[in-house]
Hints:
Blueprint: H1 6-28, H2 31-37, H3 42-45, H4 52-63, H5 83-94, H6 98-105, H7 112-141, H8 145-172, H9 182-197, H10 212-227
Helix pairs in contact: 1-2, 1-4, 1-7, 4-5, 5-8, 6-7, 6-8, 7-8, 7-9, 7-10, 8-9, 9-10
Amino acid sequence: xxxxxxxxxxxxxxxxxxxxxxxxxxxxxxxxxxxxxxxxxxxxxxxxxxxxxxxxxxxxxxxxxxxxxxxxxxxxxxxxxxxxxxxxxxxxxxxxxxxxxxxxxxxxxxxxxxxxxxxxxxxxxxxxxxxxxxxxxxxxxxxxxxxxxxxxxxxxxxxxxxxxxxxxxxxxxxxxxxxxxxxxxxxxxxxxxxxxxxxxxxxxxxxxxxxxxxxxxxxxxxxxxxxxxxxxxxxxxxxxxxx
Length: 243
């Protein structure tokens, strides 16, 4: 470990911290444990990050691909008040399911079944890509009120609201199967995707039991089969302008 350049050491520290914060929470994560997982002494850790707050900030810099390849100054300093919240807030605003937003902003396409499939695929891929950070957010939100407000109060509820509005609109036009409660339906979709794209990776006993590609395609097919009617109605052809 001593021969690794600083950027690789920071990457190792960030990976170890991500696992610790995602499993033990903010208060339960000990810098000594993170150092041991990263293959260094506790004292060496503080030559790379100034504090536990800096370590938490590093997790998101690394996970969001915003960590410089060659940091100008080490150790990474303690972030200013609100700096980590701003970093996470920007990411949560930019990342969540842009295909849903595009669907709500535009006209209904001819192929709603294909539109739905693309939306579910995007949601699955985003959760699979960012699940280590999402685990940190959900686990630490119980201890950090500002993080709880960002995730549970804004970002997650916003995604569910957009999905519910999408389902209501496509149901109203007869293109998707009506559900007794749209919000319950999209929450069920979210929980199903979250388990297979995210939570099962946190359970060591599940490692190797399922093929990742097969799991992804099965979940997407399952959701689409539930929401697309068996007799899928085509969009009516546009009327010819009267002469």
